[in-house]
Write a structure and sequence with these properties.
Radius of gyration of chain B: 22 Å
Radius of gyration of chain A: 17 Å
Structural class of chain B: alpha+beta
Shape of chain B: globular
Bound molecules: iron/sulfur cluster
Strand content of chain A: 5-15%
Oligomer: heterodimer
Strand order of the largest sheet of chain A: 2-1-3-4-5
Structural class of chain A: alpha/beta
Low-confidence stretches of chain A: 23-29, 172-178
Helix content of chain B: 25-40%
Shape of chain A: globular
Helix content of chain A: 25-40%
Strand content of chain B: 15-25%
Order of helices and strands of chain A: HHEHEEHEHEHH
Number of strands of chain A: 5
CATH topology of the domain at 11-111 in chain B: Beta Polymerase, domain 2
Number of helices of chain A: 7
């Protein structure tokens, strides 16, 4: 026990500041949490579905939860049930064997049903292409709000992408000029 | 009958580990399997190909057997009209799913095999559509339809009920279906149904130039990208008779060990988390993140994708990089040692780990459990040491082996392997020979078979490639999870349902790898 406490004390806090989304968006990064609260009235909940990825995208999604990125600290949470989710985070080019499960997960979600596709192969199948077993992109099955590029996208890009998708959907009052 | 008694006249492939190929007459197919099993060998992979368009070609079934001398790739030529071949699941029960996959992809069935349920074909394409046959392009699209029901084996009895899980799981995990039959909270039976991630990778390879295939191989299972891309490159280099420069060989091994450490770090954290000791998760996730960031900094990719390329590696390690690497290894070694002491002294954690999900050596042998999980059940197989492939040979490589075969043993083996990999990384980095990191591949005159065989972090990764150096005629990637998934079904028997995540994580098998 002592050792555990000692390790915790020694480690201190490693969380890094949230990413800055650049000049398109007026809000400074540190107000993200308030912003999400403002828009959704609560934290943002995400259901992740792997629709045929190579699993590397999952590894990076996991990493967003580590203490450096501290996703939960920003008010973003992964949930087990689509019934509790505001956002669907999809990886993989959508194998035909997963198409129905993906669609059903989406159908089970309440509004706002934001869909974010993670990784290059979600765009058009990427390296896996399109064939008898592979639908060739998430767009073939669901309306996608935002694609996050990368193979796999590193955690910081995932964070940016998730936040961008929320802002795109709720343009006002966040996006400049509105 | 001994393996030596068969008249194969095997041909040695130009690989850094001993791999042979030979043709086997149909009359010997089952006997060879039996002889390999009896002499302690293993079935590494089983796959089919359609060579009907090639001169004197036909359908071919291939089996790769690991023997004490090396890997023997045997081909069974079925001719133009072939429809069936002898079943070898009596010698190797784990051939079952591989044979069902061959039936789904090529329409060739193993005679007398009782279990004929489709494995990859869930009903999204017609039962008489065989994607690996030459007459189809693989691009055919079929109207969306309801997937078929799968006849799971039913357990009857008083108070038995079923729990169905998946394909979409509760966490951020790959999809697959688990059907538990339980009494109270005790698991009587688990049956897996996989194949949800099948995306036609085998067929996809055939559209790619051979020089680009390593990228797809590196995305068969993202956590094993170095192992798969290396195995692919080894196969292509053996076809092109090209020897990689020493510096590249050392760098490849260094990358493979970095991949191993990254995965063990992540899983050790997740295992503690599954036993409600979140401290372990946060600590190990931090170490893993540090580890991946240095990968990005030194090799340009956090998970090391596309760094191993045909002929060598894509990125060199500068001297400054070497010193960063050494410092990091030292730091991580110390931290992992501290955390290990915390794990070992944590009564709650040990209580969950010890005697949970036990796989005996006998069971592990029968079912072909391989990789670190096999070593945790007392099977001392590790390709890095067994054939002394450079640069592993001559470093007093220590295999991590344990007897108990429970979650605790798999945790111990993972800790031991991290320590050994950190030692190797430091050695490899300091020994790096000067010189080139990549050489061009030599041209080849005809289509040949090449193979690659690598001890990935999870287990034996194998790639068989048929190519003329330009085009890919056939590429088969084999993930060790093929063997290990059925073992998981046995490992959970008699355990309680809440221990399943823990047992599952202790193996951490790939879905993408075998689904292809
Ligand atoms: S985008 Fe790349 S890393 Fe992500 S699942 Fe697809 S192939 Fe894998």
């Amino acid at each position: 026990m002592l050792k555990t406490l000692f390790q915790i004390g020694k480690q201190g806090i490693c969380t890094e500041p949230a990413p800055d989304l650049g000049s398109d968006f007026l809000l400074p990064a540190h107000r993200l949490r308030n912003e999400i609260l403002e828009v959704l009235g609560r934290s943002l909940t995400i259901r992740e579905v792997d629709a045929g990825s190579c699993n590397a995208c999952e590894l990076e999604i996991h990493a967003t939860n580590n203490l450096y990125y501290n996703l939960e600290g920003l008010g973003i949470k992964f949930v087990a049930s689509p019934r509790h989710a505001d956002m669907l985070l999809v990886t993989g080019p959508v194998s035909r064997n997963m198409a129905m499960a993906l669609k059903r997960t989406y159908d089970a979600m309440p509004a706002p049903k934001i869909v974010v596709a993670v990784g290059d192969c979600t765009i058009n199948g990427g390296i896996f292409g399109e064939n008898y077993a592979c639908c060739g992109g998430v767009g073939k099955i669901l309306p996608v709000d935002h694609f996050i590029h990368g193979c796999p996208p590193p955690p910081i890009e995932l964070l940016k992408g998730i936040l961008t998708a929320v802002r795109l959907r709720y343009g006002h009052p966040i996006v400049q000029g509105k | 009958m001994q393996i030596a008694d068969f008249t194969f006249e095997p041909e040695r492939l130009a690989t850094p580990v001993p791999i042979w190929r030979a043709t086997c007459p149909v009359s010997d197919w089952q006997e060879v399997a039996h002889a390999v099993a009896a002499s302690g060998g293993r079935l590494v992979s089983l796959w089919g190909s359609d060579r009907r368009v090639r001169k004197a070609g036909g359908y071919v079934i291939s089996a790769a057997y690991a023997t004490a001398e090396g890997l023997l790739c045997l081909e069974l030529r079925l001719g133009q009209q072939g429809e069936s071949y002898p079943d070898i699941s009596a010698s190797f029960p784990y051939a079952n799913r591989m044979q069902r996959t061959i039936a789904d992809l090529l329409g060739l069935v193993a005679e007398a095999m009782e279990d004929r349920r489709p494995w990859l074909n869930h009903g999204a394409w017609p039962a008489d559509y065989f994607p690996l046959r030459h007459e189809v392009t693989g691009k055919e699209a079929f109207p969306a339809c309801e997937l078929q029901d799968y006849p799971f084996v039913r357990v009857e009895g008083d108070g038995v009920h079923e729990i169905a899980v998946g394909p979409v799981h509760a966490g951020i995990i790959e999809p697959g279906h688990f059907r538990f039959s339980v009494v109270g909270e005790k698991v009587l039976r688990l049956e897996e149904r996989l194949g949800y991630k099948h995306k036609g990778i085998d067929k996809r390879f055939e559209e790619m130039p051979a020089k680009d295939g390593y990228r797809l191989a590196g995305r068969v299972s993202g956590d094993s990208t170095v192992a798969f891309s290396w195995a692919y490159c080894m196969a292509l280099e053996s076809i092109c008779n090209t020897r990689t420069p020493a510096r590249a060989r050392w760098l490849r091994a260094l990358l493979l060990e970095r991949e191993r450490v990254a995965n063990h770090l992540g899983d050790l954290g997740a295992l503690a988390n599954d036993a409600a000791f979140t401290f372990g998760l946060t600590q190990f996730m931090r170490l893993k993140e540090d580890w991946l960031r240095l990968n990005q900094h030194l090799f340009g990719h956090r998970l090391l994708m596309d760094v191993v390329i045909p002929g060598g590696v894509a990125v060199d390690l500068e001297n400054t990089g070497i010193s960063e690497l050494l410092t990091q290894c030292q730091g991580i070694a110390k931290e992992v040692k501290n955390l290990r002491a915390i794990y070992e002294n944590h009564a709650g954690l040990q209580d969950r780990f010890i005697a949970t999900g036990r796989v005996t050596k006998e069971l592990a042998t029968t079912l072909g459990l391989n990789g670190f999980a096999g070593r945790a059940s007392g099977i001392p197989v590790d390709l890095r040491a067994d054939f002394g492939m450079a640069p592993y040979g001559g470093h007093d490589f220590k295999k991590a082996v344990h007897r108990n075969g429970d979650v605790a043993a798999r945790v111990t083996v993972r800790f031991d392997e991290i320590a050994e990999s950190l030692r190797l990384i430091r050695l490899f980095a300091t020994e790096l020979a000067p010189g080139e990191i990549v050489v061009p591949l030599e041209a080849v005159a005809e289509t040949k078979l090449g193979a690659g065989w690598i001890e990935g972090w999870r287990g034996e990764v194998f790639v068989a490639l048929e190519s003329d150096g330009e085009k890919i005629q056939r590429c088969h990637c084999h993930d060790p999870s093929w063997q290990n998934w059925p073992v998981l079904e046995h490992a959970v028997i008699g355990n309680i349902v809440p221990d399943f995540p823990l047992i599952n994580k202790s193996f951490n098998l790939s879905y993408a790898g075998p689904d292809l």
